[in-house]
Write a structure and sequence with these properties.
By secondary structure, the protein is α/β, with parallel strands linked by helices. The chain has an eight-stranded parallel barrel with strand order 1-2-3-9-10-11-12-16. The chain has a five-stranded antiparallel β-sheet with strand order 17-18-19-22-23, covered by helices on one side. It has a three-stranded antiparallel β-sheet with strand order 5-7-6. Helix 2 runs antiparallel to helix 13 and helix 14 packs antiparallel against helix 15. The radius of gyration is 24 Å and the shape is globular. 3-O-alpha-D-glucopyranosyl-D-fructose binds next to loops.
Length: 634
């Protein structure tokens, strides 16, 4: 693949003095001084990581200068509010660590458009939310666009969702309410109608080098040999033939999402420059979509390559210069073993992402529910390292994607289950096909019945709320839902709620699914907001109020108990019952989670008296006084 070795020379304006130096000289003294100091701290890291990726040569020196230039320009363009916010956060780097609660939603399904989101701020505040991840709201591909993940313009708000002004107003209103807005930044690919792709198709070789092109079927076959497939049913293979290019373009996801070629340093420069400009719209966190896929290496699965981490560390260094108050979140849906480097715990250790999804914990909690046994959770926790200072795990029960089972394969293989039987069972359980299953989900990307890609469905549908016939069934379903939320809110530094789960919202209706026509099974758990259900949270004893108020209570506790700090130590209690997961945060908090449908009495330490957990119950206890622990929530 020739383009992967593309060695285009970066243009450079001045041989002697980088432009950014003269820009700093002309800038207000207070900013110039702070910026010089940040550059002084970051320049060597930036150079080191980029040399590791692109080699030691004059091109890299020029790239470093161009990147610093872009960072300086972005930083000088930052509003006074954001500039002050950066200063404050630099002085308090753990600003996001205590009591964080996240919420994620599609703009249109949650509130119609960006202005509608402004109307939801009071609701989010009442839930204790401090972090709002809105799924892609920038201009997406015309036609199918993977829920906005086929990005046609990095910086233009999707006209169907609002204007640039609406976005600015929203970020300001959220900031006032103490909620940080997180935006997706899709690093790995752009839409086939993004300007770069259009130029490439029109014959511009500069932009052809922005993509990964294979010229022959043999070349495609050589890559495919070791590449897994993300959407094997609806988008098989990793390459798509493009007539205009007379080549196969690398498309890891859908054929209309073209992977970017990070072996071309200009791609990195352009992408990062855009990201820094987007930060100036008031975005306080970026969800780095598909981070694991940025670097392609023949003969491997082209995931989590060392270069990915060098690039992310270079990105972090630039953000530290341009907008140090902004958080980076790795969306690397990878086995636990692959995750520590996203926190900078890799070969080249250093600052990388502040947050990373713990998808193994999420998937394992669903397996544990199906199995009524916590063993898989225990093995995942045993693999989970303590996060470095200033970092947090993002924990969650559901999100807009399927529950991906693949992340658990290495854990099962280590336990001797090489055929992943337990995942097959879990997948069938949540599709509602196993006998005695209460779940109403659906398998995803598994035309073959023994394949185990993922499972779709809203949390409440998967925990049995909508198959319940009796009051007891309903109680059990609510307890299961809260058990999973209880674990997510206990374990993570940033527990993330998926829109509607705080009310037990149902799957998308059949009628609506038909109207959407799309072939993507994930639509099953992308329903519209239901105002009636939301209002029912005020009705004492209603299902909605039981779920909502428990989540509210957990959110409050997270704000008051120091042990919930994002980088606190979370350890596994070894002496809990097999069906119970026991976790400890620092020295004083423990969480006990009963995954079985029976009552269990257990002692979590020699000196403690026994604790009773009813079916699917969880308890958080403060054990500062371990003879007489206090129950924080049950
Ligand atoms: C991410 O997903 C997004 O969350 C998905 O919604 C997008 O379809 C995808 O990127 C492409 O932009 O592997 O680490 O359901 O878990 O595609 C990136 C499968 C990903 C998703 C998977 C995921």
């Amino acid at each position: 693949m020739t383009t992967l070795e593309s060695t285009d020379l970066l243009s450079h304006s001045d041989e002697n003095l980088p432009v950014w130096r003269s820009q700093l000289n002309a800038a207000p003294q207070s900013r110039a001084h702070v910026l010089s100091e940040r550059i002084r701290k970051q320049e060597s890291v930036l150079t080191d990581r980029l040399v590791k990726v692109y080699g030691q040569n004059s091109r890299v020196q020029a790239l470093v200068q161009d990147l610093i230039q872009a960072a300086v320009q972005a930083s000088l363009a930052r509003s006074e509010d954001l500039w002050q916010l950066d200063l404050h956060r630099q002085a308090h780097p753990d600003w996001h660590q205590q009591g964080a609660v996240g919420y994620t939603a599609y703009v249109d399904q949650f509130a119609g458009n960006l202005q509608g989101i402004t109307q939801k701020i009071e609701y989010l505040k009442s839930l204790g939310v401090t972090y709002l991840h809105l799924l892609p709201f920038f201009k997406a591909a015309a036609g199918p666009n993977d829920g906005g993940f086929a990005v046609a313009h990095f910086e233009e708000v999707a006209p169907t969702l609002g204007t640039q002004e609406d976005l600015l107003q929203l970020t300001q209103a959220l900031r006032k309410a103490g909620i940080s807005l997180c935006s997706d930044f899709v690093l790995n690919h752009v839409a086939q109608d993004h300007d770069w792709a259009l130029k490439a198709k029109a014959g511009d070789t500069r932009y052809q080098n922005y993509f990964c092109l294979a010229k022959t079927p043999e070349e495609v076959a050589a890559w495919e040999k070791t590449l897994p497939q993300i959407f094997p049913d609806t988008a098989p293979g990793n390459f798509t033939f493009q007539r205009e290019l007379n080549a196969w373009v690398w498309t890891t996801f859908y054929p209309y999402q073209w992977d970017l070629n990070y072996a071309n340093p200009k791609v990195f420069l352009d992408v990062v420059s855009a990201m820094m400009r987007v930060a100036n719209m008031g975005i306080e966190a970026f969800r780095l979509d598909s981070t694991g896929f940025l670097w392609k290496r023949l003969g491997t699965n082209s995931q989590n390559q060392p270069e990915v981490h060098c690039l992310l560390q270079a990105l972090r260094a630039l953000m530290e210069i341009a907008c140090p108050g902004v958080l980076l979140k790795a969306e690397a849906i990878m086995p636990t073993q692959q995750l520590p480097p996203y926190f900078g715990l890799g070969e080249s250790s250093g600052l990388e992402c502040h947050l990373a999804y713990h998808s193994s914990l999420m998937a394992a909690s669903w397996v544990a529910l199906a199995e009524q046994d916590a063993s898989i959770l225990r093995s995942v926790m045993a693999q989970t390292p303590k996060v470095p200072e200033g970092c947090s795990w993002l924990s969650y029960v559901r999100c807009h994607d399927d529950i991906g089972w693949n992340v658990l394969k290495p854990d099962l293989e280590a336990l001797g289950d090489t055929k992943h039987e337990r995942l097959i069972e879990a997948s069938q359980f949540f599709a509602g096909v196993s006998p005695n299953s209460y779940a109403q989900g659906a398998a995803f990307q598994t035309t073959h019945t023994r394949a185990v890609h993922g499972t779709n469905g809203m949390a409440a549908a998967l925990t049995g709320l909508y198959s319940a016939h009796t009051t007891e069934d309903i109680d059990r379903a609510v307890d299961r839902l809260l058990l999973l939320q209880g674990l997510s809110f206990f374990m993570g530094g940033l527990p993330l709620l998926y829109m509607g789960d705080e009310l037990g919202l149902a799957n998308t209706t059949q009628e609506e699914l038909v109207a959407r026509k799309g072939p993507d099974g994930r639509e099953l758990h992308r329903p519209y907001w239901n105002e009636d259900k939301a209002n029912s949270r005020h009705v004492k004893g209603s299902i909605e109020s039981r779920i909502f108020s428990k989540i509210q209570q957990m959110a409050q506790l997270r704000k008051t108990q120091a042990a919930f700090k994002g980088d606190a130590d979370v350890t596994l209690l070894s002496n809990a019952h097999p069906q119970v997961l026991g976790l400890q945060r620092n020295h004083d908090l423990i969480g006990l989670f009963n995954f079985s449908n029976t009552t269990i009495d257990l002692k979590f330490s020699e000196s403690a008296s026994s604790v009773r957990l009813s079916a699917y119950q969880f308890k958080w206890l403060n054990i500062a006084n371990d003879v007489a622990p206090t129950v924080l929530i049950d």
